[in-house]
Amino acid sequence: MNSTRNPGRVAGFWYLLLCVLGPIRLVYIPGKLFVHGNAAATASNIAAHEWLFRFGIVADLCCAVILIFLTLAFYRLFKGVDQNLAVLVVIFGGVMPALIDFVGVAQDAAALTLVRGADFLSVFDKPQRDALAMLFLRMRDHQNTAAEILWGMWLFPLAILTYKSRFLPRFLGVWLIINGIAYVVLSLTGELLPQYQNTVFLVSQPALFAEIALMLWLLIKGARPVGEPG
Prior knowledge:
The chain is 80% helix and 0% strand. The protein is built from 10 helices and no strands. The protein has helices at 7-33, 39-48, 50-78, 83-116, 126-153, 155-164, 170-192, 197-203, 205-208, 210-220. The radius of gyration is 20 Å and the shape is elongated. The protein has one domain. By secondary structure, the chain is an all-alpha fold.
């Protein structure tokens, strides 16, 4: 099947790009540069690996744009199933998370400015600048925890569309619902009982692979709305 005539493969391609770039800032850079509870060491790592940190910022910008194209590809794929639900996918999965990504980029840029020690920051000594940089990074973490609500909410209309469609397997729809619930629970746990967030994350791992399964299905098998010419 030609991918240009197969909207499922187009969506799968954008999903793949998101899965490749998304973990760079969410997982790799925090693990590589951030030292929990140590603002000075974190600032020193960012200063020593500034281009890696900047690459994470660029990756986030790319992810924000990719989210828009991904959800528009889903809209094209599912608008014949239920146009209202397809619009919700674009809003909850594309527009709102993309805006949050742009805010996160501004927070990272603020942290980098503090680490570099711009002239107008000379009224702060280095420990104070390091502490402020850590504050912006912590704000970014809290933002991600809050954004998990949206990461879950957009999967609900997507799951229903997948289940109702006649061109994707229903088990993917059920799995996506569970994935969405897991993200909502993770977000609420992070806000209400943060001491249990890591435990809930580990327990929810099987549910969180639903998006990977959908992405692989779309890339390998593709999907075309019923009645659309091949």
